[in-house]
Design a protein that fits this description.
By secondary structure, the protein is α/β, with parallel strands linked by helices. The chain has 14 helices and 5 strands. The protein binds a DNA duplex through helix 9.
DNA sequence: TCAAACTTCGGTGAACCGCG
DNA sequence: CGCGGTTCACCGAAGTTTGA
């Protein structure tokens, strides 16, 4: 472990242990498995409390135990197995003394397990909370309510979820602090507490992305249900680089693919295909993209997407939409959310 | 020179598969 | 059915490139 500016504490390892155990690319992300984390923690505790052997014998025992718990029930040869073996190997560099095992123990029991359960208590989608609200709103406002509904759901869902995240964090932070502040202080205490918060935020932040995406998807599907638009099966053997959430069959028997996202980001090139033959072969009239975030759309992107049978639906108050409205070509394929249903209905019936 | 445009990253959750 | 395993979409923030 690097020593940093004279403020380093052995408890800095809490952060790095947590990081390694959660890292799914390299190490299999086993830290999310609370059962194993608890098993590991109690194995370390009992070994340290009950053994009278000298340190290196206990260490050897614990290393074996660690390996067993990490690999137990896993099939050799799978990619996860290799990742976990690598995790075990790389952990060795930081497990030099029994104190290091105590630190690992605390990481599992007091950092990872609580964060896991916090994550479990935080919703992974906003739909339940938002559904009844949205339905009454749409009933009252009708199709013109569409202008705001997705953004409102987005905001409401975000707000509600952030509040929930804060509650979870404050409560578990408090518990952790009370738990350890009698035994440690100063830089040690700081290292543990900040490691907890930093990992909490990293993970909850990732969860937030998925939730935002599902929120848009859910809001759109709610709109479909509310206005009684039937989704159809996807045309056979047609796949895009981009996920199409639902297909709608027009009265002419062609298809419109609808994809819902918060933003396109680097995926914008997959939002259209230049292969018009492919579209014709599968009777695909257009691909519609419902987006709530417009800031990463440049004019170049808009025209490129729009010139290949793709249509973008943006929030009514979107500046990019406003700009496109003044442009004769662009307004054909950059459309306001509020006309989404009418556009769709005129094609379906 | 520096802001705008664009791309990359990565933990989570869901879908799916094969197995017992 | 449940469980391990794999794959993929999610997007906010950080990082890189472009172009005026």
């Amino acid at each position: 472990m690097e020593t940093n500016y004279g403020i380093s504490s052995p408890w800095e390892k809490v952060y790095w242990f947590a990081r390694m155990l959660i890292n799914s690319d390299q190490y299999g992300g086993i830290g999310g498995d609370s059962r194993r984390m608890n098993a590991l923690a109690s194995a370390i505790k009992t070994a340290i409390d009950q053994s009278n052997d000298d340190e290196h014998i206990v260490m050897e025992f614990l290393n074996q135990k660690l390996k067993n718990i990490l690999l137990e029930g896993r099939k050799p040869g799978t990619s996860i197995y290799h990742s976990l073996e690598k995790l075990y190997m790389d952990l060795q560099d930081d497990l030099i003394t029994l104190t290091d095992f105590k630190i690992l123990c605390l990481t599992c029991e007091k950092v990872l397990v609580p964060i896991n359960s916090c994550l479990g208590n935080i919703p992974s989608n906003d739909s339940e909370f938002v559904e009844t609200y949205a339905n009454t709103f749409l009933k009252k406002e009708g199709a013109k309510g569409l202008a705001n509904i997705i953004n409102i759901l987005d905001d409401k869902g975000l707000r509600g979820s952030l509040e929930c995240e804060r509650k979870q964090l404050v409560a578990s932070f408090s518990e952790l602090r009370k738990n350890i502040e009698n035994e440690m202080s100063g830089a040690d205490l700081d290292s543990v507490l900040t490691a907890f918060c930093q990992e909490f935020e990293r993970r909850v932040g990732q969860k937030r992305k998925g939730r935002a995406g599902r929120g848009v998807e859910g809001a759109t599907s709610l709109i479909f249900r509310h206005f009684g638009i039937k989704a159809s099966q996807a045309p056979e053997h047609f796949t895009t680089g981009l996920e199409i959430d639902r297909w709608v069959r027009t009265k002419e028997g062609w298809y419109i693919g609808i994809s819902c996202k918060r933003t396109l980001r680097e995926r914008w090139k997959q939002a259209y295909t230049t292969d018009l033959n492919l579209l014709n072969r599968h009777k695909i009239q257009a691909l519609w993209h419902v987006l709530t975030y417009d800031k990463d759309l440049s004019d170049e992107k808009l025209t490129e997407i729009g010139s290949h049978r793709a249509v973008l639906y943006l929030p009514d108050d979107s500046p990019k939409l406003k700009k496109a409205g003044n442009h004769p070509g662009m307004k054909e394929y950059v459309r306001p959310m509020s006309s989404f249903i009418d556009d769709l209905k005129s094609l379906v019936s």
